[in-house]
TrEMBL record:
Its EC number is 2.7.1.12. GO terms for biological process: carbohydrate metabolic process. PANTHER family: GLUCONOKINASE-RELATED (PTHR43442:SF3). Keywords: ATP-binding, Kinase, Nucleotide-binding, Transferase. This is Gluconokinase. It comes from the Eukaryota.
Amino acid sequence: MLTLLVLMGVSGCGKSTIGKDLTLALNSDFIEGDDYHPPENVQKMKQGIPLTDTDRYPWLIKLHSLVLEKANSYKNSEKNSPEQLKYIVMTCSALRIKYRQIIIGDNQISTTNVESDADQKENQFQTKFIYLELPKHELVRRLEARKSHFFNGSLLDTQLETLELPTEESKDLFKIDCYGKKNQEIVNEIMNIIRQ
């Protein structure tokens, strides 16, 4: 069964860095969510303007489409054994429950704009959301040190306010406390989660 691993959290939590390391460890496909933001979104974030749901929906639907494309490629590839586990690693802030639902197609917005429910069932995959948690002071430190990213650090508070944290009932969402840990330690924790 194909497994989508979504590394989620606010900007600066290490999604891209851990995502690349995890991709190497799993020999998996990698989708860097930030690469698919439309130019309008990038410009707003550079200017310190928070994104609205209307801004985010086309981006999230695009990510959902990419997952379906990958799922189709696995399904149609003769070299992939059906018994062999396959992974897609994706980075995406996925701050709210409804955003996470769009990514996996469990939402009216994504299913009406991408494929029918029948088509969705043909591309079954399981999903695990991995929330990378850091204290605010560490997030601020990282964002201040980061020069090459379009995200304006002034938006951190908005992201933290928007974030809907995992609850005990969240069976497909796992929280990892990343503070003070080396990248390999975090990757190892994720590997333990996906083996469960």
